[in-house]
Amino acid sequence: MERFVEWVMRAGWGVFSLTWRAAGFVIFATQAILEPVVRYALSGLAAAGMLMTLLFGVVLREPRFPTLFMFCASLACFALLAGYYALMRCFGDLGDERRHR
Q1: Long-range CB contacts (< 8 A, 24+ apart) of 47-53?
Q2: How far apart are CA 49 and CA 43, in angstroms?
Q3: Distance (Å, whole) CA 89 – CA 92
Q4: Domains of the chain: which residue ranges?
């Protein structure tokens, strides 16, 4: 009876592992396809926000321009891009256990 329970546990773990790897592959493939779009959008927004902050907030000293908000929004775009790459790295390393030893 104990051998049967052990066999069921191993089979269950194998099915779970296979399912997790398949789902991870699909998620990574989707992220890899969308990566250029996300990179250009977030990098462009961040760069435009930084340039606007420098121009209107620092050089022209426009009093009604939300300098701090624009600066923080640009930093948030950079942070979102870094998070996107971290997720890609997480899901991209599913099949290579040799690097984790």
Answers
A1: 47/74, 49/73, 49/74, 49/77, 50/74
A2: 10
A3: 5
A4: 2-94
Are 31 and 84 within 8 A, CB to CB?
yes
Q: What is the pTM (predicted TM-score) of this model?
A: 0.78
Cβ-based burial of 88 (10 A; exposed 0-12, middle 13-18, buried ≥19): middle
Tokens of 27: 């998620």
Reported as a single tens digit per residue, the pLDDT across 46-79 is 999 999 999 999 999 999 999 999 999 999 999 9
Which pair of tokens denotes residue 63? 């009093």
